[in-house]
Amino acid sequence: MPTTAPSPRLSAASEQGGTPLSDATASDSALRRFLHGLPGVDAVGLEARAASLGTRSIKTTAKAYAIDLAISMIDLTTLEGADTPGKVRALAAKAVHPDPTDRTTPHTAAVCVYPDMAATAVAALAGSGVKVASVATAFPAGRAALDVKLADVRDAVAAGADEIDMVIDRGAFLCGRYLKVYEEILAVKAECARADGTDARLKVIFETGELSTYDNIRRASWLGMLAGADFIKTSTGKVATNATPANTLLMLEAVRDFRAQTGVQIGVKPAGGIRTSKDAIKFLVLVNETAGEDWLDNHWFRFGASSLLNDLLMQRQKLSTGRYSGPDYVTVD
User: Fold this and answer.
1) Cβ distance 291 to 275 under 8 Å?
2) Is residue 269 annotated as part of the catalytic site, yes or no?
3) Count of alpha carbons within 13 Å of 333, Cβ hemisphere only?
C-alpha cells in the first residue's frame, strides 16, 4: 500500500509549531517506531486506578445531575438483522422523549443504526437535536475490501448520517501492519466530507476485546487519533469483552495526552456492557478525574448502549418520586 501523507490535522498542528507527530506517519517503519515507543502500560496500576475511582460515591444532587448527563450522552443503538423502519422510528421517538411522562428528561445524543436505516432515522429525528450515527466499514467484523467499506460509508453519509462509526482491521493491526490501518482510517475520514461542509464525525472502533493487551489498546488509540478520528471507541458490543473501566481509562489518558501535545481534542465512546446507572456514573467519574471537565459533554463523551437508558430512567424516577417504579414504567426497546 503506498505511503499516505500525514492527516491534515497533524500537518496543521506542525505548521503551528505544536508537534512533530506528522513525522510519525511518514512511513511504515516510522509509524511502527512511534507506536512501539509509547510507554508500556502498567496493567496492575491501571486496573487499580480504575477500581479505586469506581468506589467514589456522589451525593443525591450530584447523582441527579450525573443521571441526566449520562442520558444526554447515550447513542441509543439498534444493530440487529431484524431491524425494521418501524423499530427505528420507535427508537427515534424514545431518543427524543426518553420518558414521555416527564418532558424535562434530556434527549439522548444520537440514534445508531446500520447504513440502510440511516435515512429512516434522519427523517424521524429531523429538527430534534438528536444525531444520527451509522456503523459502517463492514461492521462488526470489518472483513471486506476497502472499496466495499468506503461504499458503505458513502451510503450512510449520503443518507444524512451525522456520525460514522467505523471498525479497524484488527487482523492488520495485530499483524503489525499499522500503516494499512492508518491509511484506511484516512480514506474513511475523506468519505465523511460533504460539499456543504457538514462533515460527518468519525468514531473509530478498536474492538478492545480482540486486541489482547493494554499496550495494543494504547497503540490503537494513538493510531486512530493520528489518522483523524473525532472519537475513539472501545467496542462493537458484539464480542464477549467490551468496554471496561480499565480500557476506557487508558483511552481517556490517550486523548488527554494527545490534546496536551497537539491542541486537538478527541472524544471517547465506551460501548457494550454498560447497563446500569451505577456503571454509567463510574465511567463519568473516570472522565472527570482523568481527562477533565472538558470531556463531560456529549460532544466529547458517549455511551454506546441499548439497555442503559431504561435503568437511568428508573433511577431518575426514583430520585423524583422517592419510589422505584420498575421496568413496567419504561418502554421496551
Assistant:
1) no
2) yes
3) 20
User: Which of 94, 149, 180, 269 does the annotation list as catalytic?
Assistant: 269
Record the cell numbers describing residue 273, joined without a space: 456492557
Choosing from 75, 162, 165, 311, which is the catalytic residue? 165
Of 256, 265, 284, residue with least CA distance to 69: 284
Cell numbers that stand for 188 in this block: 474513511
The dihedral built from the CA positions of residue 6, 9, 10 and 15, taken in this order, carries a sign that is: positive
pLDDT digits (tens, 9 = 90+) for 160-200: 999 999 999 999 999 999 999 999 999 999 999 999 999 99
Q: Dihedral of CA 318/321/325/328: which sign?
A: negative
Measured CA to CA in angstroms, residue 122 lies from 62, 133, 137, 156, 333 at distances of 34, 9, 20, 10, 19
Q: Which of 149, 180, 189, 233 is catalytic?
A: 233
Task: List the 131-136 sheet strands across, edge first.
Answer: 267-269, 231-233, 201-205, 163-167, 131-136, 110-113, 74-77, 303-305
Q: Report the relative pairing of strands 231-233 and 110-113 from DSSP bridges.
A: unpaired
Answer whether 0.70 is exceeded by the pTM: yes
Burial class (CB in 10 A: 0-12, 13-18, 19+), 265: middle
Measured at the CA of 250, the angle between CA 30 and CA 193, to 5 degrees, comes to 65
For residue 165, indicate whether it is catalytic: yes
- Take residue 40 and report the three cell numbers written for it: 508500556
255, three cell numbers? 486523548
pLDDT digits (tens, 9 = 90+) for 88-120: 999 999 999 999 999 999 999 999 999 999 999
Look up 328 and say whether it is catalytic. no
